[in-house]
Design a protein that fits this description.
The structure holds 2 protein chains of 2 kinds. By secondary structure, chain A is of the alpha/beta class. Chain A folds into 2 domains: 270 residues, Aldehyde Dehydrogenase, Chain A, domain 1; 180 residues, Aldehyde Dehydrogenase, Chain A, domain 2 (3-Layer(aba) Sandwich), CATH 3.40.309.10. Chain A contains 15 helices and 20 strands. Chain A has a 7-stranded mixed beta sheet, with helices on both faces. Chain A has a 6-stranded mixed beta sheet with strand order 9-8-7-10-11-19, with helices on both faces. A 3-stranded antiparallel beta sheet of chain A has the order 5-6-20, with no helix packed on it. Chain A starts with 25 loop residues before the first strand and ends in a 7-residue tail after the last strand. The relative contact order of chain A is 0.15. In chain B, strand 7, helix 6 and strand 8 form a beta-alpha-beta unit. Chain B folds into 2 domains: 247 residues, Aldehyde Dehydrogenase, Chain A, domain 1; 196 residues, Aldehyde Dehydrogenase, Chain A, domain 2 (3-Layer(aba) Sandwich), CATH 3.40.309.10. Classes of the chains: A alpha/beta, B alpha/beta. The interface between A and B is large, with 68 and 70 residues.
């Protein structure tokens, strides 16, 4: 275990997980197949930058094949014609299988993504399983409405599956984002073409295999590995895709929505970037706030769309907070994510790694105070030192842009009304943290913040039932919870006249 | 609109019609369209004056920043009713600033829901009081029948605002079970400044569909009216301010799509866009949102809705409602039943009766009582419809009746019926938006489902059958946002309306419409010693 203050190479001898990579092809219509072009791309180990496996590289033609399969499975297949109970049973069987294969899935996730194995094993996989239990339970609870009419008509509203859903997931939580997308789509009776991130294609293929084992009919879930500008764009533009859900950057989200607008107006759900404020009031429990502010930012190597990346601290406790936040960052254990007790692994890839270092440089150049960190960690792979900036001003780039790395920016405030304005002065609106023991402040701030989630005296609580999504340019729509079902349903009003109604 | 009311109007006049037979009939000035005479020698002077013809920004009627104006025309004659300020980007900016301030600083979203409700109810009462004046203005500007406006559309407008007034204090968030010691709630918050763009075919009713839910949820609004029909929105907005709406909550900008409309869709300070209009324009609206600030977009777009008459249907009723489904509002309905599929066993009978019904249609000055059809909205639409009629003839469909303009003045079109229409003809694929009925034959249920769904649109559908199994099968299989069974165009306030596929995104009316104007905020607090989880 290495505190980041030791500058020794972190990974002299990376731990190799006892795992075979069995699934590297595209999954189309229930079959693992090569890409039409025959091309492959390497997926890399973020600890070393070395190749784990070569994966079939899907592009427009493979998306076409996958959409055809999904179309057929929806239009003709058994899936939407099964009872909701049968669909729910398949999802429950899948959840059981995922639970049984928790270790392999967690190992594969860590290997491909670089996140701590303990985190994948004890937090993400159980949450993954929990999400599928949650959505399995929804399958037979998709109720339409009957509606009071203004005259002698019988009015009902059917909530129908929307059809073929295109889903594009990111690399920071490959399994959880799959569950957020695939869970509600399947619960509602849709079929799917899922494009995984090119950085992390492996777990989605493994999971898709388990779905087949659980009894999912062929063509219901198709998985295409590949790049955004080819496979992703083809999916977003496809005239036969009825719905698109995307999680990723705001810039790419704009392109996705534009492609939907230019093609067939498929409804789009977007979960995009954030620059979420974490507000520590003067009456907060400082130690608790420091620990959770640290967690809110550094969790998952800082690679969270909802990272608490603007830590606003009341001036009365600011100095104490900065000291303790710095100490906590210095105590953070960085190293091989397969090692026990490790809190932080490498960033996902070279591009992100360099982007994070560039923002650190920008922070220094713009005269924020570098309290600790500020450079790469070790000499191999994409490890970054846990970095803390104090004296950050709202107009600095590090306080405005999404860094997506282990870089905490601490800002000072003194007035609640003002900090609400500052917290809201961003194009983003994904999440926020509020630390206070005062109920009036908690209520004022939680109403005043323009953000899809407000965590009060806690952070990153991601229960299945809690809706998640953005205000402003952080996205459109909500995932998880009852709200997520709307994304995968069409609403059909059915009206017929009543002869001699007993009541209206 | 409300089929119940319309049907009862129709049934009241039906005995008259049957007594009259098919010959041309001009008594009391009603022209069956078979008279080729000019429908309008002397247009009736509308019983209303134009009182409000400026932009409404921050509670004040103002000129456009540019000083420019545009004429709004009487569709009966093509003559100018009045000149209206032509809002463009700068006026949209002013209106958005006003709406932004009214939202961010209040008082509107900071009022209680009950106070907002009272204002909406007072407004509904005021509109009711001015029913005929508003209806006359709507008829003058849009050419639709005065009787239809006065008896159906304005009452429905009032009904919609009472409906939405009732929602204001029923916007509930949820409390939610946590997976651990957390207290979880969701707040359903107003989304902010809403941009709304409404069409010319139902200026008032579309106003209510958009403004009603946005205000009920506590938002502020910049509304762009259609350049063909700017007048009624200004009059009712004046009444809304009389009812106590604070300045800046509802701003009205008259103007054109490529200037004012585009500026609204691209605006970085608008939190939401709702648009009703053509699919082509809807695509641009969504693209502008994608290129600017990703504001969520609701779209109500075009349609080519099938009207399916099964062999076991009541033919007379099906003929009457198929006629109504297509010809209502001069055929200018996004959900017009514009592909009439008739089972081969009843096809000949249906066709003969449909033709007879079209021949009986009373066309003329919409201010005259007893009229069923006024002029089309403008020369562009008028020309487009005549082009489609020519296309139908050229593609080999049988022109049963109609097929030309009616009279020599204004934008009147003869009620037109085509039979022997094939699915691949343009008149069976494109939205004509005029009084042109296309009748197609089918013989098998599964086949007609496929044909009905074989379109980029999915707005609505009509099904005529007395068989419950047939009704259920068709209802589930049709990819359309509304299925009317043995009825059509029933538009109660509670019934959600919207499209599958390229007919749109989202639903208006009913409980569903509130979602368009709310943001969902999850609030999670840590629990110490919870008594239960």
């Amino acid at each position: 275990m290495q505190r980041f203050t030791s500058s020794a190479a972190v990974i002299d001898e990376p731990i190799i997980p006892p795992l075979q990579i069995n699934y590297t092809k595209l999954l189309i219509n229930g079959q693992f197949v090569d890409s039409a072009s025959g091309k492959t791309f390497p997926t890399l180990d973020p600890r070393t930058g070395e190749v784990i496996a070569h994966v079939a590289e899907g592009d427009a033609e493979d998306i076409n094949r996958a959409v055809s399969a999904a179309r057929k499975a929806f239009d003709e297949g058994p899936w939407p014609r099964m009872t909701a109970y049968e669909r729910s049973r398949i999802m429950l069987r899948f959840a059981d299988l995922a639970e049984k294969h928790t270790q392999e899935l967690a190992q594969l996730e860590t290997w491909d993504n670089g996140k701590p194995y303990e985190q994948a094993l004890t937090a993400e996989l159980p949450l993954f399983v929990r999400l599928f239990h949650y959505y399995a339970g929804w399958a037979d609870k998709i109720h339409g409405l009957t509606v009071p009419a203004d005259g002698p008509h019988h009015v009902q509203v059917l909530h129908e599956p929307i059809g073929v859903a295109g889903q594009i997931i990111p690399w920071n939580f490959p399994l959880l984002m799959l569950a957020w997308k695939v869970g509600p789509a399947l619960a509602c009776g849709n079929t799917i073409v899922l494009k995984s991130a090119e950085q992390t294609p492996l777990t989605a293929l493994y999971v898709a295999k388990l779905f087949q084992e659980a009894g999912l009919p062929d063509g219901v879930l198709n998985v295409v590995s590949g790049y955004g500008s080819t496979a992703g764009a083809a999916l977003a533009s496809h005239m036969d895709v009825d719905k698109l859900a995307f999680t990723g950057s705001t810039n790419t989200g704009k392109v996705v929505l534009e492609l939907a607008a230019r093609s067939n107006l498929k409804p789009v759900t977007l979960e995009l970037g954030g620059k979420s404020p974490f507000i520590v009031c003067d009456d907060a429990d400082v130690d608790h706030a420091v620990e959770l502010a640290h967690f809110a930012l550094f969790f998952n190597q800082g690679q969270c769309c909802c990272a608490g990346s603007r830590t606003y601290v009341h001036e009365r406790i600011y100095d104490e907070f900065v000291d303790k936040a710095k100490a906590r960052a210095l105590g953070r254990t960085v190293g091989d994510p397969f090692k026990n007790g490790i809190e932080q692994g490498p960033q996902i890839d070279l591009k992100q790694f360099e982007k994070v270092l560039r923002y650190i440089k920008s922070g220094i150049d713009s005269d924020a105070t570098l309290e600790c960190g500020g450079d790469r960690f070790g000499s191999k792979g994409y490890f970054v030192q846990p970095t803390v900036f104090s004296n950050v001003k709202d107009d600095m780039l590090i306080a405005q842009d999404e860094i997506f790395g282990p870089v905490q920016s601490i800002l000072k405030f003194k007035d609640v009304d003002k900090v609400i304005k500052r917290a809201n002065a961003t194009r983003y609106g994904l999440a926020a943290g509020v630390f206070t023991t005062n109920i009036d402040k908690a209520n004022t701030i939680s109403r005043g913040l323009k953000a899809g989630t407000v965590w009060i005296n806690c952070y990153d609580i991601f229960d299945a039932a809690i809706p998640f999504g953005g205000y402003k340019m952080s996205g459109i729509g909500r995932e998880k919870g009852v709200y997520s079902l709307n994304n995968y349903l069409q609403v059909k009003s059915v009206i017929s006249p009543l002869k001699n109604p007993a009541w209206l | 609109m409300a089929a119940r009311r319309i049907s009862s109007l129709l049934s009241r006049s039906a005995p008259l019609l049957s007594r009259r037979g098919k010959q041309s009939y001009t008594s009391r000035g009603i022209f069956r369209y078979t008279t080729a005479a000019a429908a309008l020698e002397e247009p009736i002077k509308p019983p209303v004056n134009v009182k409000y013809d400026k932009l409404l920004i921050n509670g004040q009627f103002v000129d456009a920043a540019s000083g420019k104006t545009f004429p709004t025309l009487d569709p009966r004659t093509g003559e100018v009713i009045t000149h209206v300020p032509e809002g463009d980007a700068e006026d949209i900016n002013r209106a958005v600033s006003a709406a932004r301030k009214a939202f961010d600083e209040g008082p509107w979203p900071k009022m209680t829901a009950y106070e907002r409700q009272r204002i909406l109810l007072r407004f509904a009462d005021l509109v009711e009081k001015h029913n005929d004046e508003i209806a006359a203005l709507e008829t003058w500007d849009s050419g639709k029948l005065f009787e239809q406006c006065a008896k159906i559309e304005v009452p429905m407008f009032v009904r919609l605002f009472r409906y939405y007034a009732g929602w204001t204090d029923k916007i509930h968030g949820m409390t939610i079970p946590g997976d651990g010691p957390h207290h979880v709630q969701t707040l359903h918050e107003p989304i902010g400044v809403c941009g709304q763009i409404i069409p010319w075919n139902f200026p008032l009713v579309m106003f209510a569909w958009k403004v009603g839910p946005a205000l009920a949820c506590g938002n502020t609004i910049v509304l762009k009216t259609a350049e063909q029909t700017p007048l009624s929105a200004l009059l009712v907005s004046k009444l809304l301010h009389e009812a106590g709406l604070p300045d800046g909550v509802l701003n009205i900008v008259s103007g054109f799509g490529p200037t004012a409309g585009a500026a609204l869709c691209s605006h970085m300070d608008v939190d939401k866009i709702a648009f009703t209009g053509s699919t082509e324009t809807g695509k641009i609206v969504l693209e502008l949102s994608a290129k600017s600030n990703l504001k969520p977009v609701t779209l109500e777009l075009g349609g080519k809705s099938p009207f399916i008459v099964c062999e076991d249907a009541d033919v007379d009723k099906a003929v009457e409602l198929a006629h109504f489904a297509l010809f209502f509002n001069q055929g200018q309905c996004c959900c017009a039943g514009s592909r009439t599929y008739v089972h081969e066993k009843v096809y000949d009978e249906f066709l003969e009766k449909a033709k007879a019904r079209a021949l009986q249609r009373a066309v003329g000055d919409p201010f005259k009582s007893g009229m069923e059809q006024g002029p089309q909205i403008d020369s562009e639409q008028f020309e487009k419809i005549l082009k489609y009629i020519r296309s139908g003839t050229e593609s080999g469909a049988t022109l049963e009746t109609g097929g030309d303009r009616l009279g020599t003045k204004g934008y009147y079109v003869q009620p037109t019926v085509f039979s022997n229409v094939k699915d691949d003809m343009l008149i069976a694929k494109d939205e004509i938006f005029g009084p042109v009925q296309t009748i197609l034959k089918f013989n098998e249920l599964n086949d007609v489902i496929k044909r009905a769904n074989n379109t980029r649109y999915g707005l609505a559908a009509g099904v005529f059958t007395s068989n419950l199994d047939t009704a259920n099968t068709l209802t589930r299989a049709l990819r359309a946002g509304t299925v009317w069974i043995n009825c059509f165009d029933t538009f109660d306030a509670t019934i959600p309306f919207g499209g599958y596929k390229m007919s749109g995104i989202g639903r208006e009316k009913g409980e569903y419409s509130l979602k368009n104007y709310l943001q969902v905020k999850a609030v999670v607090t840590a629990l110490k010693n919870p008594a239960w989880l």
